[in-house]
């Protein structure tokens, strides 16, 4: 780097501090520093150079228990006197004490330092208990000890939040692991929804400014499929090969229909990556082209996190077809669950049904801005539309779409352009539509949401492109709501033995309308 005339980030900071000190100018009266636990000494020297020493020169906030880098410093040694000027914040509005206590128990040999602040230690937390025949949590005292409540207290509520008497604690102060259901009242639910909205907005903003969040953003593969150039340059007697990027599935189907069997097999041999992903190509040729990826693989693209579509059942002779569109964190390395769900639905529906596990789009990864926006869903909707058009071009029956979680956003955006007879959403955060009419589809729309599904706690809003809109199971949306009380969790709608799997099979067969 020295030979190239380049400098590392910390070197730039150190040089900036040196220049500022030589100039003798302090451009700011006050400097506010957050996340102080992760700053390097070079960064501290730069911050020190920005403001002259004095009252309220630097306001510093940090928590050494949240340090992610190994930058342990003494602020005093860097010209920042903090002894006698520091305060420990004892009220936490974001988490309960159980969480840091439990987290700290996982760390061995890691003792948080105080960066030279030497703030007074925390007082021991008070103990609380639930007296017999009382619905309230109460501070332990001689009176409660006498009635047999203590000494088996509930820890985890800091002294600052505790009432200063033996009066019963309000529900908001109960330990977090004791909360169940929605018995907190409408006011608390409104505050909860506002908090979630704020969190979603924060995630979106962080995605544009924080390197760590931005690094997790996903991008669909761009450019032609591998092998496209060779495909287009190949000589076909009297025929121009369809461009995989622009030709529609029906055009592709017409091209293959004009070839002999030997010519078709030759294309599979010479251009497997193109034929294996070409919507409208005959099913058996796509299977052959993708044989290296597994049995009955209808599409396989290893770029990025990878995309794949695999069939359970006899697709070419099926009377009924279902397509499962999965949600986030699905790709080649995490395709097993979707494939198992397809197998379960196919077995439940019967031998005349084929089910396609379609992980054919780039899904959001983890919790971040991608999950709260429609960017990846829009790209996925285009791919899903083309895929279902390919099934139609191959002469197959109109499919039923089963769309899980973020996959229901994809299906909502694709609804007006697919020929699906039924669209079923489960565990849906919304379909980016106010109601069924806004979907612009003639398909029957069904919705299922388990009371045990965490998605029920996500607010159904859409603000500046953030969030996915109305709850498809709400009365005003207009979908037919399926019972899902026995679904065990967010990923359990296609679990064998559940009422939803039975209903999904009946919808696929056309028995439930």
From TrEMBL:
Domain DUF1023 span(s) in chain numbering: 301-462
Q: Could you confirm whether the keyword Nucleotide-binding appears in this record?
A: yes
Q: What GO molecular function terms would the record report?
A: 3'-5' DNA helicase activity; ATP binding; DNA binding; hydrolase activity
Q: Where is the UvrD-like helicase ATP-binding domain?
A: 19-73
Is Kinase among the key words of this record?
A: no
Gene Ontology biological process terms in this record: recombinational repair
Looking up InterPro entries in the UniProt record yields: DNA_helicase_UvrD/REP, DUF1023, P-loop_NTPase, UvrD-like_ATP-bd
The GO cellular component terms are: cytosol
Task: Write down a Pfam family by its short name.
Answer: Abhydrolase_8
Which keywords are on file for this protein? ATP-binding, Helicase, Hydrolase, Nucleotide-binding
Q: What is this protein called?
A: UvrD/REP helicase N-terminal domain-containing protein
The top of its lineage is: Bacteria, Bacillati, Actinomycetota, Actinomycetes, Kitasatosporales
